[in-house]
Each structure stands twice: as structure tokens, then as C-alpha cells.
Amino acid sequence: MTIQLYGFWRSNAAFRVKVALALKQLPYEEIEVDILAGHQFDGDYAAVNAERVVPTLVYHGQRVFQSLAIMEFLDEMHPTPRLMPGNPSDRAYARAMALVSVADSHPFVVPRVRKHLAQTYGAGLDGVEAWCAHWAREGLATYERMLEKRPAAPFAVGATPTIADICIAAQTIIGELYKVDLAAYPRVAALAKRCFEMPAFAEAHPFRQPGFRAVEI
Predict the structure, then answer these.
(1) Is 214 within 8 Å of 10 (Cβ atoms)?
(2) DSSP 178
(3) What are the residues whose beta carbons fall under 8 Å from the beta carbon of 101, sequence distance 6 or more?
(4) pLDDT in tens, 167-178
(5) Does Plastid show up as a keyword for this record (predicted)?
(6) 3-class DSSP state for residue 167?
(7) Class at the top of the CATH hierarchy for domain 88-205
(8) Peptide bond before residue 81 is cis, with ω within 30 degrees of 0
């Protein structure tokens, strides 16, 4: 196997990469790193990924991490179908949409942040869940405003899915995990529905992964 992916069923970032790999029909071997159990801090994985996060892509021996970097790398190595629009303006817009979730929302709900809230500030389960739901809504609301100004046709940046659609779909999963009602974001919900009608998105959903289990936060 020339492509390996260190990931975890619950990882939103790993979901994004799995969709990209599926859209490009690239087979890979997944290696589980249980981030809920803290295995990302094990010594052997720290040697793989200096940031000690998932996912990490191993491509013919080359290691790439951070989901957006991985998706752009895959697009350069396997440009069909394109995940990054060819037009510079559209490409910048797609990247900006991706970063709404990748940089401005999802980082606030990852395990190390939830753990820090509990250990440093004494936040209980309800408080941590409310925190996560807040940031899920923030990302969804931003996407709703963006889609209002530039409606999907039928995807965020044209006729086919891009990194923008992958990240919007990923944000709806965060909302789903923290019981956010997507009815408040009809444009986002409609776009996500179109995405999850595609096997590449549906089969990467965390709840459809082999390791899925019901867990608190």
C-alpha cells in the first residue's frame, strides 16, 4: 500500500481527508490513532507527527499533515477531479471557505481544548458541550452568510465539490455531534444534503466508520 492515513473515526479533520481520497478514488490503508484515549501522544506516533494530531498522510513514504495541506497536496499529485478551482479568484474563495471550519471553528472543539476547559477551568460536561455547540453554530452561521451572498450552483464554487464543500460538510458533522439544529442554516443544510448523497461523503461520515461508538463529547 503506497498511501497510508493515520486517523480516527471521530476526527473531523480525518473525515475531510477521507472524502478527498474517495473523490479521487485513491485507495489507502487507515491506521487508527485513538485521540479520545490520548494515543496521539504516544511516543511512536509523536515520531510520525510532531504536532501529535491526526490525520497524517503517508504518500509513498512522504509524510504530510494538517488536513488542508493534505487536500491541496493530493490535488497537486492527482489533479483529477480538481478539489481546488483553476481560477485564482475561485481558488482563493474556496480556500477561504475551507478555513472557516479548519481554522476558525473546528480547532475550538478538539480533544485537547475540551480537556483544557475541564482541567484548567473546571468546566463540566454540560459546559464543555455548550462551548462546542457555540463554535459549531459560529461556523455554520458564517457559511450560511457566505452562501447567501454567493449561492451554491449546485456546489459552493460551481458544478463539482471542492475543498469548500468538504469543509462545509465537515462543519455540519460538528453541529450534528453537538445537537445543533441545522434548520437554522437552510442553505448549509441543502448543500450538505447534496454532498452526503455522494458516496465519497456518505461513506466517510464518522458514524459509518468501523470504529464508531457512542461516546460523550
Answers:
(1) no
(2) T
(3) 12, 139, 143, 167, 168, 170, 171, 174
(4) 999 999 999 999
(5) no
(6) helix
(7) mainly alpha
(8) yes
